[in-house]
Amino acid sequence: MLTVLPIRYVADVAASRHFYAGLGLIFQADVGVDVWAQLAADAGAVGIHDATVSQGRPPGTTELGFATDERLEDIAERLARSGYEYDLVDENFGRSIRVTDPDGVVIQIQEIDHVAVRSSATATRGKPA
Questions:
Q1: Terminal alpha carbon distance of the chain
Q2: Residue 75, Ramachandran bin (φ over 0: left; ψ between -120 and 50: alpha; else beta)
Q3: How far apart are CA 110 and CA 127, in angstroms?
Q4: Phi, psi of 106, deg, nearest 5
Q5: Pairwise CA distance, residues 1 & 83, whole Å
Q6: For each successive 10 residues of the chain (129 residues), what is the average pLDDT?
Q7: Structure pTM?
C-alpha cells in the first residue's frame, strides 16, 4: 500500500516538527532521528528532512513522495509494463524508486529501512553543513 508522504526539506527539523504537530499531525517517534521526522495525519503523512544532509535540496523545497510496504521490484514491474522508465536507488534511509511524471516532475517511492535511517543519522551527526 502506498502512503502519500511529501518530503519537506527544512533548516530546522525540531522547529518544523513542532509547527506541524501544532497543526494536528502526530510525530512518529519510531521513525524519527535528528535529521528526519515523520508526522502522520488521518490520510497520509509528511516527512521533514534536514536540508543540510539532503544531497542538494535547499530549505523550503518539497518533493512529492510515497512510502510503501510493497516490494519496490513489484512497483518497478508495474511501471515498466506501463511504459515508464525509473531508477531504483540505494538511499541512506533504504531504497527508493525515482520516476518522472508526465509533467517532468520526479516522484519518489520509498521503502524505508528504519535501521538504515538510524545508522545514517548517526553517521551525519557532527558533520559540517
A1: 35
A2: alpha
A3: 25
A4: -80, 130
A5: 21
A6: 90 95 90 84 90 89 91 94 94 86 91 61 52
A7: 0.73
